[in-house]
Each structure stands twice: as C-alpha cells, then as structure tokens.
C-alpha cells in the first residue's frame, strides 16, 4: 500500500467515524431528555407556545390534495413563461428554482393576492368610510375555515356593518385572496411547498411571519417575504422597517431552529422568555423527533447543512449582499405600519 492509499484509507475511516457521531447526535435521545422536555413544557409558557407552533406548522403544508388545488387556482402558464423569460442570457442553469421563487413572489403580490387594511362595505362597496368597531365571534360557516376571530367594520356613509373573518385555512384563502401578513404567509408557504420548494415558515414573536426557501444554487437558506415581494433581504425588518425584535424561529418538516441572528441586526429586544440553554435544548429536541425516522443519508445531509448555517449565523453584519429594499414597510396603510413600529422611523 503506497502513501496515497494510506492517506485515502485514513481519511475514509475518519469521515465514517465523524458520520457515526453526527448521526448519533442527530437521531438518538440521551437519558433524561424526555423528562427535561416535558418539564419545560409544564413550567414555561414560551416553550408551550413553540411546541404548539411545531404541532400546527411543521407538517401542515405537506398535503398533496392542497397542492393540486393550488395548481388549479394559479396561472401556471404565465408563471413558467415568466420564469423562462427571466433566464434568457443566464449562464447559471442551477438558479432556475430561485428564479421560480422570484416569479412566484411577483405573481402572488401583483396578480393573485390583495392586502386588506379595511374590507369593502358589503352594502355600498366603499372602503374610505369603513371604521373598525371591534371584534366578534365567527359564525358556523366562518368557523369551519379555522377562523378564530372576525373583525367588525361600520360604514359611516351608509351605516352598514361588514364582517372580516381572519381565516387560517389556506384553501379558503385561495378563494378569498385577501388578508394581512398572516394570511399572506400562510397561503404563500403552501404555494412554495406545492411547487416542491424546500420551505420554512418563519415566526417572529413581535407579530410578523414570512418564509425561507433552501437555495440549492446558493447552498443556504434564503429569506422570502410575500408581503414585500422580497427575496434574500433579511435586513429589511431591523434596518428598513426599524422593527424591534426578540425571537425569530424557523419551522419545517425536519427541523425547528432559532434564526434570530439572521434578522435582528439592531433594535434587539430582551430575550427573557426562556433560558438560552433551555431554548437550544428545546429546539434540538424537536428537531430530533422529526429526524429519528428519516434515512441516515438524509439526516447526515441535513446535519451538514445545519453546521454551515450555524457558522453563517455567527457572522455579524448583513447576511445578504442585496441592499435595495425601500425604507419602511411596503405593505399596509401608513397608520397601521406606524402602530406596529414598522414604518422605518
């Protein structure tokens, strides 16, 4: 055996040993972890909130019947035509999926979904005279579409009262095609998953939600916000909106991860909802529950990705080279954005 063969053999053994360690760490639970997890859920409200989000979000959009309904509702011919046109002259065939995501952002915001500050009056069809007068309980029809609350508006022009149900059923949103950031992210997550795009639902404690997609071309997770038609601009919340934030958590079908460092570049709020070590354990435990039934090859791939992302999240400054987003939030009325502290001031 020559020197090259010896080195090759040693490196192969080391890599295999490393792989075994990674898989053990990623799929096996240590003694006492179940008890620690249950104790956290019983003693910490924020832990219970994250566990509830895990249960409701992580597998929610992996529904082939829903995917078929999405395809029936979208103008696929236009979408693919625009994706193909955007690639004319491009030398990087690998970025086709990224171009598809950008076109879905454009199509969703410009051609498909609408923002609703105030609904049209159901009597006289006006918007400018609509005045919010409180909330009501959903009726039987509204409740079947995961509606927890109904906003009520009084028209100062005709006296009519309009109901605005806040639906959480993404298939119902395919029909209504309107809402605010919750509805936008809910349906757009389903749209991305319908196209087979690896997607994470991003939850911010300070009342905003958006998505991330995994770019095989860029080899990393990329920020995507359908409300803003924003691709790879994670700085917009802290920098452009001047939004203060504490926790930003990513949910997918194979992981739950704290990605706060990607988005909170200034205006960091105090993180006092849970001990940091407990938070790390909690999210790691959730991730293990997803991965224990996956193949070793796939879990090893995910673990290698995780390590690269951890390195990225340790970096300071802007994670993206794109800096063209406008100051202040684009979606929503001026008053609404100001109330939420998202107007850039």
From TrEMBL:
Enzyme class, broadest EC rank: hydrolase
Transglutaminase-like domain: residues covered: 173-228
Pfam family, one: Rad4
Catalytic reaction equation(s): Hydrolysis of an N(4)-(acetyl-beta-D-glucosaminyl)asparagine residue in which the glucosamine residue may be further glycosylated, to yield a (substituted) N-acetyl-beta-D-glucosaminylamine and a peptide containing an aspartate residue
Names of the cofactor(s): Zn(2+)
EC numbers for this chain: 3.5.1.52
One of the GO biological process terms: ubiquitin-dependent glycoprotein ERAD pathway
Keywords assigned: Metal-binding, Zinc
GO MF, one annotated term: peptide-N4-(N-acetyl-beta-glucosaminyl)asparagine amidase activity
Annotated Polar residues bias: 321-336
Cellular-component GO terms for this entry: cytosol; nucleus; PNGase complex
Region spans: Disordered: 321-345
Family statement drawn from the similarity comment of this UniProt entry: Belongs to the transglutaminase-like superfamily. PNGase family.
Protein known as: Peptide-N(4)-(N-acetyl-beta-glucosaminyl)asparagine amidase
Native source species: Eremothecium cymbalariae (strain CBS 270.75 / DBVPG 7215 / KCTC 17166 / NRRL Y-17582)
